[in-house]
Design a protein that fits this description.
This is SocA family protein. InterPro entries: SocA_Panacea (IPR025272). It comes from Candidatus Ornithospirochaeta stercoravium. There is one protein chain. By secondary structure, the chain is mostly helical. It has one domain. It has 8 helices and 6 strands; from the N terminus they run H-E-H-E-E-H-H-E-E-H-H-E-H-H. The strands form 2 sheets. The chain has a 3-stranded antiparallel beta sheet with strand order 1-5-4. Strand 4 and strand 5 form a beta hairpin. The chain is globular.
């Protein structure tokens, strides 16, 4: 998904296995099915909390502002494509039918840390009674990094998320920590891929 706006400096290498496991874990907490917009909002809010509290990303995804609030962009693309046999890891575990996503095979949680699973559980519990439209409304009213794109999309950087909640030296420290976490994640990701070759 392409978005307009400034390119950000802190980013993670998208790890489809980890993103799939995070999504499947959330689906498992919801009897194996969810409205796809609610799944994306809960994952975004989980990532946001993990970025703010731990200086790292659960899904390793990129974020954009769209009309219905923040969107995790690559997971959104996987959701749109998972009703066809794309041969992706995601499609082997998660299927989209209409506006619902279904867990069809549990991929396990070996890519997720206990703290990442705890954050997903906490955010899911916090918004359990919310519909997808309640979550859209919540995001519009409570997330300063979201900007109305008026039918388009605007990139949300990790810096945007941090600057919405942290100021001054606290912001500078958080940026330093997340830059280090992103570099470590990239190194680990490429080392694991090299071992599989």
């Amino acid at each position: 998904m392409e978005a307009t706006g400034m390119q950000y400096s802190v980013s993670f290498v998208f790890d489809e296995h980890k993103a799939t496991q995070a999504s499947a874990y959330l689906l498992g907490l919801n009897k194996g099915r969810m409205n796809y917009m609610k799944l994306m909002k809960i994952l975004y809010l989980s990532d946001r909390r993990f970025i703010l509290d731990w200086g790292n990303s659960i899904t390793t995804d990129n974020y954009v502002s769209m009309d219905n609030g923040p969107v995790i962009s690559r997971i959104y693309d996987l959701i749109k494509d998972s009703n066809t046999d794309t041969g992706t890891y995601w499609a082997s575990c998660i299927r989209t039918i209409g506006y619902e996503v279904f867990l069809q095979k549990d991929p396990g949680v070996d890519c997720l840390s206990p703290m990442e699973m705890e954050i997903i559980e906490r955010v899911n519990s916090e918004f359990e009674g919310f519909s997808e439209w309640d979550l859209v409304d919540f995001c519009h009213k409570n997330l300063p990094e979201w900007q109305n794109p008026h039918g388009s999309s605007i990139q949300i950087s990790i810096e945007d998320i941090l600057s919405a909640e942290k100021k001054g030296e606290e912001y500078n420290q958080a940026i330093g920590e997340i830059q280090l976490a992103a570099e470590i994640q990239k190194s680990n990701y490429f080392m694991q891929r090299a071992r599989k070759l």
